[in-house]
Amino acid sequence: MNPDHAALLALFDREMREHARPDGPGVRVERTSDVVRQVGAADDWNGVVWSAPALDPARADAVIAAQVAHYAALGHGEFEWKLYAHDRPADLAQRLLAAGFEAEEPETLLVAPVAELSTAVELPHGVRLRTVRDAADVELMARAHERAFGSDWSRLRHQVLARLAEDPDGFVGVLAMVGDEPVSSARMELYPGTGFAGLWGGGTVEAWRGRGVYRALVAFRARIAAERGYRYLQVDASGMSSPILQRLGFAALSTTTPYMYRSH
Question: Start and end of every N-acetyltransferase domain (predicted)?
Fold first, then answer.
């Protein structure tokens, strides 16, 4: 990794993980000497976002067991350990698997300086972008997401509605519309007190893929991030979106894999 990327990864780890802030209303961040974790209601994101670089093999299993016990005591049957490729100890992934966690698809951690990204929004004919304003727009986001990804949006619906109602300055939702139909949706999470904003979503229904809608959504959100003074955009990118984002100027800094614990 080149020195600039190493410094940017260290900044990300410090601001977004070690000093993580709650990602929405009604959730809290808890810190111990070993981990930083988020705790909320069942429909919120619950999980470990950071583990201490000094976590050594002799103590790692006990720390993992303590997190399982902590969430179980709160009545949570499911939580995530968000593991990054550079986390220590080097065999932490194997230890999580041995403790009953299940690995989901890895994603690439991408970061770009906002000032180096294009903010020119170029859309195919017939498509327009607009921000999400109310609960009806959230339903349009849900429809686009479910058509694009084929997955249930009920938990995200809860989180987005809460952000829109209680923390609208920390969230931007965007719809790509053709007439009255949503063909893509995306969101941006703003993290006050850090230099980072996060891009999420961006799934486009099949008939409109390959026409530049995803790139337009990135540019639209980059422009808003620049206007609000954020220095970096961060994405946990799938294999489909990672090549597009790297062509737009994002750098791959690490990979991140969700390790899910589900009590049975």
Answer: 127-264
CA distance 145 to 147: 5
Closest CA to 236 of 259, 252, 217: 252
Q: Are 71 and 65 in contact (CB under 8 A)?
A: no
On average, the pLDDT of the chain sits at: 94
Integer Cα distance of 86 and 225 in angstroms: 28
> Is pLDDT above 90 for 3?
no
Counting residues of the chain whose pLDDT is more than 90, the rounded percentage is 84
Check residue 143 and report its DSSP letter. Answer: H
Between CA 76 and CA 84 the distance in angstroms is 23
What is the C-alpha to C-alpha distance for residues 142 and 22, in angstroms, rounded to an integer? 23
How confident is the model over 45-104, as pLDDT tens digits? 999 999 999 999 999 999 999 999 999 999 998 999 999 999 999 999 999 999 999 999
For 162, list phi and psi in degrees, rounded to 5.
Answer: -65, -45
H runs (alpha helix) in the chain: 3-12, 57-73, 92-98, 135-149, 154-166, 213-227, 242-248
Place of tokens 């300086």: 113
Residue 153, pLDDT > 90, answer: no
- Residue 161 structure tokens: 């509605």
b/e 163-201 (16+ beta carbons within 10 angstroms → b): bbeebeebbbbbbbbbeeebbbbbbbbbbeebbbbbbeb
